[in-house]
């Protein structure tokens, strides 16, 4: 168990495990948390997410011995498949994408519980068949009525599926059994649609049975933010406006929109990434210390800080957006956004978005929080950089510290997870000259090559019913409240600036920081 | 990179490590612990292989201490291997000749990573009292392996009499998947367990520990049965509601039967040394549960009494 996991587990018995089990002992920390008897139903198994992330993660969990005996995996899609055909699809996905080595005995265990149900989302009969399949699994595999429904489908089908689950009685299991639903982002495209989605889901499932996946929260390094901040003495005293000059949160992608034009156009970078991932990172970095790492206490603090966060008054000066145009990226000439297949020539969708946010709390008043994200940027990287004030007095002459910048603490989330500290150090030689140096802690190197994929952690937590890593609808709505005014402003004010693919975004974004005397880090 | 140093000292070895690290251009080290392996010429290859593989999960400086006692003069030979084929950490193979073989601590102490935990592992023969062995005294955690010794069961009794917090034995580590499965089977309220049986190959220290653990936790007599193995082949827990049945004949896949559910198969493979070691390195504080179970081993010959 990593430090962060310890923080989250907090010694409590997870998800309804019997505390009277004589074989369990809180001191016996070798025994991992294993899900009780249950099954997982995936809607949209033919999709990208399911093949690349979900099915491999399930295999990896089985391989690590974290799934219960008899675990069942049911696929639902509009294909004329038999169970074996689907098993073959899972097999191929696992072989290609799983993190842990392929073992026949693990595959045997898993494949015995694989089923397939064929149908459309509007097809009531298919859902009846699903119910029969589940009942049969309860009998033959001992899943005891516990099932999670994973909606790996385009969001416009959420209402259909949820309604069908309700109407066929699938949403309610037998007594003592649980039914859970897992939904993927986007959770709406603005506050109103998010509330509508919540209304639909909330009518059928209890809030504690709804698991919203923000896969960033399943990443070890994101959880490590909490360990870093709250398990150490040396960071928290300086974690405030007295020492912090500003904060930069970046999630950059080098890819374009790929084949996802239909999803992406009209949504854009801010809704796709800032609303969920970046605001969650902001919340974890900025929040006050929760009294415990229980889901409730953690959520309370995140909500408090999100509710205190808003864009600057003059939105045109505190935001920037861009759209990539044809350019050279990493040695390749790539098309511009408007040239991508399926994108209307007059699209004003932002593929780059940067916002300056303010957090109105005693801790952060006056400290700008810059969030940026984009497609086709310099390289793929996600990081949080906390940049500190310059020393108030420097007992050096000007030219001695000419090359000294500001101290910074950078939490690197991906791809090379870890932490960097930047500080001034004397340049070797006779004269006194101070220059920035960096000190690196590589997380992936210091712990576990076998650090689990985010989806492994999240799927296991769904099956255990352990909610701390899943945003609740209150957080989703608080985030839309921050973003909605910005989107409204953009809608009615012209179109995005352009930036050549492979660069770090439009000039307007640099100007936005320059107005405060800041510059973007080159991550 | 490999550097051979003959008739050397710890400070020269330290210099070689530092040098190699500078030359590779990365002065910072990500290592989280020092792993000292105490072994002999026959054992060091396999042990080192397991340790380097485990060090991918727990980057370590690995010090392999090979004692070559004898009449010859005292001499220290070392082989320093850094990054590349050995994985992320550093490996130093130390051969202690002559009288020096009685003073391994003097060689190892200067080579420990500053401020990082120390783990000592005896893959084969282990001292009677690991915590008071000169190398054991430096360590937070001391790993032994009863199963690799001549007579494993009496070895377990020795482990008991020499136990200190922080000791651990791989025969206990090997049980984790079994214990996980058994604990999972009892997670959901069932009728109280009234009896138990553990079946395993002869001379299995893991089976001894499992029987003792079950007996003390469930408060029941645990029967023992000897089979052809490999390892533990079955565990049965009786209760009025039917009980739990786990059979594993091939050392890979088990069949499990619990009340109210059909029989199912579950992967329960015997794990390689590298995985056992990686599990051990995950936690560096005392394993109290192991200490308690070990305390139940009978001192004379380590058997559980009647029915064995
Ligand atoms: N891919 C990612 O990396 C990623 C990341 C974050 C969030 N998400 C979210 O995860 C979900 C799934 O993503 P995805 O990329 O896997 O989507 P996808 O590749 O478009 O797959 C969608 C799935 O839905 C099925 N489907 C679509 N329309 C249907 C209909 N009318 N009736 C029955 N089935 C239908 C498709 O089946 P057919 O094969 O029959 O069309 C397919 O299996 C979405 O909510 C997405 O927003 C995905």
Automatic annotation (TrEMBL), chain B:
Family matches, as Pfam families: OpcA_G6PD_assem, OpcA_G6PD_C
Residue span, Glucose-6-phosphate dehydrogenase assembly protein OpcA N-terminal domain: 51-160
Domain called Glucose-6-phosphate dehydrogenase assembly protein OpcA C-terminal: residue spans: 166-294
PANTHER family per UniProt: OXPP CYCLE PROTEIN OPCA-RELATED
Protein name according to UniProt: Glucose-6-phosphate dehydrogenase assembly protein OpcA
Organism from which the protein derives: Motilibacter deserti
Classification of source organism: Bacteria, Bacillati, Actinomycetota, Actinomycetes, Motilibacterales
């Amino acid at each position: 168990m990593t430090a962060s996991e310890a923080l989250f587990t907090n010694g409590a018995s997870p998800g309804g495990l019997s505390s009277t089990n004589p074989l369990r002992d809180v001191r016996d920390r070798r025994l991992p948390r294993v899900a009780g008897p249950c099954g997982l139903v995936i809607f949209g198994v033919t999709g990208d997410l399911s093949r690349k992330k979900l099915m491999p993660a399930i295999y990896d969990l089985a391989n690590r011995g974290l799934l219960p005996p008899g675990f069942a995996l049911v696929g639902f899609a509009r294909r004329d498949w038999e169970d074996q055909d689907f098993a073959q699809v899972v097999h191929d996905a696992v072989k290609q994408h799983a993190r842990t080595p392929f073992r026949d005995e693990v595959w045997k265990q898993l494949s015995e519980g694989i089923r397939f149900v064929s149908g459309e989302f509007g097809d009531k009969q298919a859902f009846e068949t699903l119910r029969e399949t589940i009942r049969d699994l309860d009998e033959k595999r001992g899943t005891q009525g516990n099932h999670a429904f994973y909606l790996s489908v385009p969001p416009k089908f959420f209402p259909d599926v949820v309604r069908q689950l309700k109407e066929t009685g699938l949403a309610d299991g037998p007594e003592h059994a649980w039914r859970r639903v897992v939904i993927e982002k986007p959770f709406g495209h603005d506050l109103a649609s998010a509330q509508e989605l919540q209304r639909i889901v909330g009518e059928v499932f209890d809030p504690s049975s709804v698991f919203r996946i923000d896969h960033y929260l399943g990443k070890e390094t994101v959880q490590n933010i909490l360990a870093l901040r709250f398990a150490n003495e040396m960071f928290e005293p300086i974690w405030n406006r007295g020492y912090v000059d500003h904060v930069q949160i970046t999630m950059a992608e080098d890819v374009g929109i790929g084949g996802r034009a239909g999803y992406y156009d009209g949504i854009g970078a801010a809704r796709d990434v800032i609303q969920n991932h970046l605001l969650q990172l902001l919340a974890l970095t900025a929040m006050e210390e929760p009294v415990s790492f229980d889901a409730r206490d953690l959520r309370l603090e995140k909500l408090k800080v999100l509710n205190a966060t808003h864009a600057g008054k003059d939105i045109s000066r505190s935001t920037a957006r861009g759209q990539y145009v044809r350019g050279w990226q990493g040695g390749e000439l790539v098309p511009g956004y408007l040239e991508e297949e399926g994108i209307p020539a007059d699209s004003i969708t932002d593929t780059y978005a940067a916002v300056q946010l303010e957090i109105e709390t005693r801790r952060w008043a006056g400290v700008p929080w810059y969030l940026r994200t984009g497609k086709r940027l310099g390289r793929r990287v996600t990081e949080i950089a906390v940049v500190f004030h310059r020393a108030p007095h420097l007992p050096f002459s000007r030219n001695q510290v000419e090359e000294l910048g500001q101290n910074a603490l950078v939490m690197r989330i991906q791809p090379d997870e870890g932490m960097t500290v930047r500080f001034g150090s004397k340049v070797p030689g006779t004269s006194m000259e101070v220059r920035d140096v960096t000190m690196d802690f590589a997380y992936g190197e210091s712990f576990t090559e076998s650090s689990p994929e985010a989806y492994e952690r999240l799927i296991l937590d769904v099956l255990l019913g352990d909610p701390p890593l899943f945003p609740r609808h209150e957080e989703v709505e608080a985030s839309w409240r921050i973003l909605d005014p910005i989107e409204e402003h953009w809608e009615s004010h012209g179109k995005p600036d352009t930036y050549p693919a492979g660069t770090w975004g439009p000039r307007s974004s640099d100007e936005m920081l320059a107005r405060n005397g800041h510059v973007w880090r080159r991550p | 990179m490999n550097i051979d140093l003959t008739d050397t000292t710890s400070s020269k070895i330290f210099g070689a490590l530092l040098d190699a690290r500078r030359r590779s251009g990365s002065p910072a080290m990500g290592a989280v612990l020092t792993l000292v392996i105490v072994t002999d010429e026959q054992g060091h290859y396999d042990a080192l292989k397991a340790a380097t593989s485990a060090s991918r999960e727990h980057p370590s400086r690995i010090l392999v201490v090979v004692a070559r006692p004898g009449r010859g003069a005292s001499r220290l030979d070392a082989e320093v291997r850094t990054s590349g084929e050995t994985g992320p950490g550093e490996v130093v193979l130390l051969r202690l000749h002559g009288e020096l073989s009685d003073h391994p601590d003097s060689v190892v102490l200067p080579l420990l990573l500053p401020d990082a935990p120390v783990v000592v592992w005896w893959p084969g023969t282990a001292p009677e009292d690991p915590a008071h062995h000169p190398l054991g005294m430096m360590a937070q955690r001391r790993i032994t392996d009863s199963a690799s010794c001549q007579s494993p069961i009496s070895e377990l009794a020795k482990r008991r009499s020499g136990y200190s917090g922080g000791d651990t034995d791989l025969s206990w580590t090997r049980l984790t998947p079994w214990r996980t499965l058994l604990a999972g089977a009892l997670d959901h309220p069932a009728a109280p367990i009234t009896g138990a049986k553990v079946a395993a190959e002869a001379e299995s220290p893991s089976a001894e520990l499992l029987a003792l653990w079950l007996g003390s936790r469930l408060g029941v007599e645990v029967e023992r049965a000897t089979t052809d193995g490999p390892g533990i082949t079955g565990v049965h827990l009786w209760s009025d509601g039917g009980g739990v049945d786990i059979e594993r004949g091939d050392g890979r896949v088990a069949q499990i039967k619990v009340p109210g559910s059909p029989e199912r198969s579950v992967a329960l493979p015997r794990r390689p040394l590298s995985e056992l070691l990686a599990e051990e390195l995950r936690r560096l504080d005392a394993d109290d549960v192991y200490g308690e179970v070990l305390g139940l081993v009978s001192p004379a010959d380590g058997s559980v009494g009647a029915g064995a």
